Predict the structure.
Amino acid sequence: MVDDDFRLAPVSPRLFGSFVEHLGRCVYGGIYEPGHPEADEDGFRRDVIELVRELGVTTVRYPGGNFVSGYRWEDGVGPKDRRPRRLDTAWHSTETNQFGLHEMAAWLKKTGGNELMEAVNLGTRGLQEALDLLEYANIPGGTELSDRRRANGAEEPFGIRMWCLGNEMDGPWQLGHKNAHDYATIAADVARGMRQIDPDVELVVCGSSAHGMPTFGEWEETVLDKTYELVDFVSCHAYYQPHDGDVASFLASGVDMDGFIRDVAAAIDATKSRLKSKHEVAISFDEWNVWYQGAEPSKTPSGIGNWPVAPHLLEDVYSALDAVVFGDLLITLLKNADRVHAASLAQLVNVIAPIMTAPGGPAWRQTTFYPFAETARLAKGGTVYVPKLSAASVPTKLYSDVPGVDAVAVRRPDGSVAVFAVNRSLEAPAEFEIALPEREAGANGADGKAWSEVAARTLHEDDMTAANTLEDQNRVTLHANRTAALTGDGTAVRVTLPPVSWTVVEAR
């Protein structure tokens, strides 16, 4: 049921962010490939820019990720022939630094003015380096660093509002990994310093890098206790894949993401109460996706003499099954729009990404492209309604019995309603009925309760392993779901959801 009395929260545009890390071919050979037939005067691939626009991405988190914990931002500015080549120990690669802050800002303008979400290195660096980067980026002029930016071609400041205070500092894999107390201390110092330069920055403090981390909970409590009044967001990161062939639990990954969000929200609320604070801290789910972490594409190079430039890394090929799980994760983010005010799909191009490219060749949409693009198109600017859903259960090993259908509704600015639904059942279709709210007076000529138009599109394949590849780029896509129909009185919609499917329903 979609009920006007149960409006949850507006949909933040930042919920449809993504992530560009100097990892594999995300930057080099992905968004930036000088000499490619589609490259523009700056070396940016026009075909990729068009797909990014179609995807509907808003905020872009940059430059990492694990990469940022060893990154010297100064390497990526100034004349390209003077930029040093460095070892990237996070991904055992060579960083050429031919793409940096100025290139990212220029690329974002060409994609439609997307917001830059900058991460600072708190692994091998600290307070002074963060202050230097902020001064370089945001001060109009009159200082050595701001004038250096101007000399490097950016007369106007970049005006970056959102900043990540490091990345996954709870993870032992992270260069400069710290315990919660030590990380909280440096994050608080950096936050105070950055606000002395630019009081309007919005800061994201590192939460746990996974729901299952052994320090989860204790980490949030310690970090928030020291930083609560200084930051605006705490981060969550989560990646999902099937384990030991357990597809049923994989299809219910949204259950774990929902629990993760609720647990972090509880830590925020407990800290706020303990500190007697009036300050609000939201969640930035700034890394999420399906990722086959143990698979061959995720194996990094090795060897003291083997540091390749932009190797093929983390280039997962996504199936129809993956896209359904991915769509359910989007539903979960929307269902928590009151707490999750920003999110970043990791990542954008080639690296566990909705967009793939071939070196010197075409760019194409992975299966996961479609749920993201449709949700971004229809949910931006809308209002999420609290789901009032009744569905039969399906059994899973990891999460016991879970609802076989998961769904969320968004009332759009024009008064129309978009409902996003997933059928988690491996075998049975679901007969799904949506009780619609009254049409808003004047919306598309509305003058009563009844709705006049409905359309539905579904992502489903009988072969769950079907995928889009260089050889068959449109094997999996959205198809019109012709079972969708209004009831006789025009106050509800009925639609059949195939097993293992993601569907969007629009009512006007």
